[in-house]
Amino acid sequence: MRLLVCLSISILFLGSGCTTKPYTVSDQYMYVQSTGREQKKWELVWSDEFDKPELDSSKWTRIPPGKSDWNRHMTAVEPACYNLKGGVLELIGIVNKDTLKDPRPFLTGGVYTKEKFAWQYRRVEIRAKLESSRGAWPAIWMLPATTKYGPYPRGGEIDIMEHLNFDDSIYQTIHTYYTRELKQLQNPPYFGKAAISKSDYNVYGLEWYPDKLVFLVNGKATFTYPRKSDVDPSQWPFDQPFYLLVDQQLGGSWVGKVDMKQLPVTMSIDWVRVYQ
């Protein structure tokens, strides 16, 4: 009997160890990394290889149009702006051929994980290839899944990658109340630039820790944004879950006017992987 009890306890212990996860889940979709994971090996907790015939609606939503520069020309209903083939998701900026149905001169595609998947502290990597054209502004970025600190920009924004026009480099940027409203752009520096190979796929990444954000290109650190203790607390709203946006943006005050003769332009996504 004693042997049987000991054996049962051992099996129970081993079983509980096997089910230990590197995160806890709140509201069914927000993955918060477990305390103490920073020094442990990353574990894959969420991914999409885009190997299904249709976009996985349990993971992604097509981004609807909005009033900001970045989403002014987004469409969730134009099929020509989305293509899934050969394990690659294509987000495509096109000339609008039916301005009676939609008066906008050009349309484009994007996806996000809003209200489907968000996470706090982790490593995220996205393998993507970017085409260039005048007014093209593909981006990979993150926004808060909660209103913990109030409306934008108090909740923060993390831009993993933004590419403009025909540049051979990308921007990696932080936006917060601290940078936008208090104009604290150098304490610490709020953005960096990194070279890319424009004709190839590149892996854009971010390692997110409680005390710093480390941006990556092809596995190499390119820019680090640290948490500071001697500044206004709005400098670090990055202690809450964020969701991911991937979009082929077009036009706006930063990137400039779109040359419609250079459309279509495509952002190709090979895979997205999140580790904690």
What topology does this entry show?
Elements: H1 2-18, E1 23-26, E2 30-33, E3 44-48, E4 61-62, E5 82-85, E6 88-95, E7 106-107, E8 110-112, E9 118-120, E10 122-130, E11 136-144, E12 157-162, E13 169-175, H2 177-180, E14 191-195, E15 202-209, E16 212-217, E17 220-226, E18 242-250, E19 265-275
Parallel strand pairs: 2-9
Antiparallel strand pairs: 1-2, 3-19, 4-8, 5-6, 6-7, 6-19, 8-18, 10-15, 10-19, 11-12, 11-18, 12-13, 13-14, 15-16, 16-17
Please give a handful of descriptors for the protein shown:
276 residues; mainly beta; Jelly Rolls; nine-stranded antiparallel sheet; seven-stranded antiparallel sheet; 2 helices; globular; disordered N terminus
Question: How would you characterize the overall build of this protein?
Answer:
With 276 residues, the protein is mainly β. The chain has a single domain (41-275), classed as Jelly Rolls (Sandwich). It contains 2 helices and 19 strands. It has helices spanning 2-18, 177-180, and strands at residues 23-26, 30-33, 44-48, 61-62, 82-85, 88-95, 106-107, 110-112, 118-120, 122-130, 136-144, 157-162, 169-175, 191-195, 202-209, 212-217, 220-226, 242-250, 265-275. The strands form 3 sheets. Strands 3, 5, 6, 7, 10, 15, 16, 17 and 19 form a 9-stranded antiparallel β-sheet that branches. The chain has a 7-stranded antiparallel β-sheet with strand order 4-8-18-11-12-13-14. Strand 12 and strand 13 (169-175) form a beta hairpin. The radius of gyration is 21 Å and the shape is globular.
